[in-house]
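Schema walkthrough. Field components (list of strings):
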Amino acid sequence: MIQFRIDRRSGVSTYMQIVQQTRQALRTGLLVPGDKLPTSREVVEMTQINPNTVLKAYRHLEMEGLVQGRAGSGTYVTRSLHHPDVGPDSPLADELRRWLTRAQAAGLERADIDALVKSVLDDGGRTT
Amino acid sequence: MIQFRIDRRSGVSTYMQIVQQTRQALRTGLLVPGDKLPTSREVVEMTQINPNTVLKAYRHLEMEGLVQGRAGSGTYVTRSLHHPDVGPDSPLADELRRWLTRAQAAGLERADIDALVKSVLDDGGRTT
Amino acid sequence: MIQFRIDRRSGVSTYMQIVQQTRQALRTGLLVPGDKLPTSREVVEMTQINPNTVLKAYRHLEMEGLVQGRAGSGTYVTRSLHHPDVGPDSPLADELRRWLTRAQAAGLERADIDALVKSVLDDGGRTT
Amino acid sequence: MIQFRIDRRSGVSTYMQIVQQTRQALRTGLLVPGDKLPTSREVVEMTQINPNTVLKAYRHLEMEGLVQGRAGSGTYVTRSLHHPDVGPDSPLADELRRWLTRAQAAGLERADIDALVKSVLDDGGRTT
DNA sequence: GTGGTCTAGACCACA
DNA sequence: GTGGTCTAGACCACA
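Field assembly_structure (string):
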């Protein structure tokens, strides 16, 4: 089952972190249509946040057409965002992992790597 | 001069977006010690946000020891976060750009790429 | 300014009544892009409901792309749903008012009229 | 036999939708005293809802004096709400159908028509 | 002052 | 037990 992690220092609102992590799981194929999201009670146990905040996130995902809540049953994934080449075993993932190893060998910290990735991605590969 | 872009739908508060984008520019070397940040008036023109919000972000950066405000003059970068291998002309950046080109050729959208990068980075290259 | 009326016996949830009445006002042209919705405080005075319930309705309308909330300023209409022939002075409205007069003259109560209208509309004019 | 249709997005609770659709059928004369309502099992097949929800709706209608449950037999209509001029063959229905045809010819969608009808009915024909 | 988030908890609809 | 609604109120971001 998907595990949510709340980072209170990130500057991102709690419910939006739930939304983003769920979308991320849909992208990577960790969640597929038919899967059940954890109940609000389970998320509360995982994360120590208020059940209403979980429901707010789930309602947001529902309005995006990604999940559907069923009273008395749970909240279920209704749509996939998964692209086949985005899985953890894809060649692209392998290449990226090797690149990451080289970056770490060069002494880059996570924050450096994030900054580099972000600058290249935002640039759209334009300068290649 | 650094350009700020505010995304009101991101779930990140406006002032924190200014903070994060400034830190990002310090990481990539776009901003270096001595550089002047745009005045709050200039940021207001760029972004349509309230000058108080800009000042709050700059105060936050000042508390982190990254910039310093000088009355009647402006706000100046006082510290670098730049790692030499993180620049846009570094081999690591080149390799990442080539990887990005392959990912785009495989039909991945920006959201797919973000998800893939995030999953590999969060995994810490553990499985390599 | 648009007046909301909450009917606690209707079986429709409170926030959805706000949503429906706003959509109705957009349809009839009572609200047009640029118009400001009443603040949550004003709605609370009008209707005696909780401000969070108002915000929930406004957030719902925002996700539908009909309005936009601006912190410190208010919530504004961003899109019209108005069809020119739906105004109160349109010939169609006039004809319907004359029909309503005849229905009332025949002794029909509001509930009878609602039922008749609903049955004809749901039938789609198929049998004409 | 009366067909129930549940719209989960309407904001009206499921059991209340059953109640309202039954009252509607009593108004239009689709249901008359002596008629048998579908059993909860039949409604479950029609609508995919829980039998308890059907029973709750029927109990509600029984409290309103409109139907009566007979153990081992079913639930029967005990009272009419039908006004003779509200039938599908009444002149008023004919006129309304012709009006509807004109409205559709003018390019109005169902939502536009609902809004127009609602605005005229709520206005009570006052301005005629 | 205005909207947005979050909490705590009551209560309801539904299965 | 599960999701959904609503309240009351604290606190924050923003203008």
